[in-house]
Design brief:
This protein is α+β, with helices and mostly antiparallel strands and about 180 residues long. It has one domain: START domain (Alpha-D-Glucose-1,6-Bisphosphate, Chain A, domain 4), CATH 3.30.530.20. Helix content is about 30%, strand content about 25%. It is built from four helices and six strands, in the order βααβββββαα. It has a six-stranded antiparallel beta sheet with strand order 1-6-5-4-3-2, covered by helices on one side. Helix 3 crosses helix 4. The longest helix has 22 residues. The chain is globular and about 40 Å long. It starts with 13 loop residues before the first strand and ends with a helix.
Amino acid sequence: MTKKHGIFPEPGTVKFERMLPGPAERIWDYLTKSELKAKWLSAGDVEPRVGGNVEFIFKHSDLSEANESVPEKYKHMQDGTYFKGRVLEWDPPRLLRYTWGEETGEESVVTYELIPKKNNKVLLILTHVRLGDDPAILISVGAGWHTHLDILIDRLEEKSPKGFWSVHSQMEKEYKNRIKNI
């Protein structure tokens, strides 16, 4: 099943909607607990309060059992990458908003909204704003979130996810075409 692509509803913004197996509290744990967050996005603590620190310890090779090489343009991430953010909104298990990449001087903001639906399903709305207008960044971020969300769904459904880099490379091609058509 092909997952729905993210959209670019306004300049510098990418937005995704995914229907996930609930309950919302379980998904909240995957957003906030380092040991679960590490299975689909990045390890690192999320301090449970507004103003709290958020750590991102990315090690993409740990997101699946696939043994694949890192694309040349991402070789600098081969051994992992690290940055911090700050919690802007904390309303478990409904809303989480935090900064992304504060120390880079190009701080953006990620928001997760969890909306319970019928049959123990939860609608996740992920919005990443203040990304700027560089198409290369929008393509990379769109492909990155798409790939990470696919892995989250696989983890929630207790399936083995595909390799991050092979999926991400394919998604970059698709998002490049999507950006061209905006």
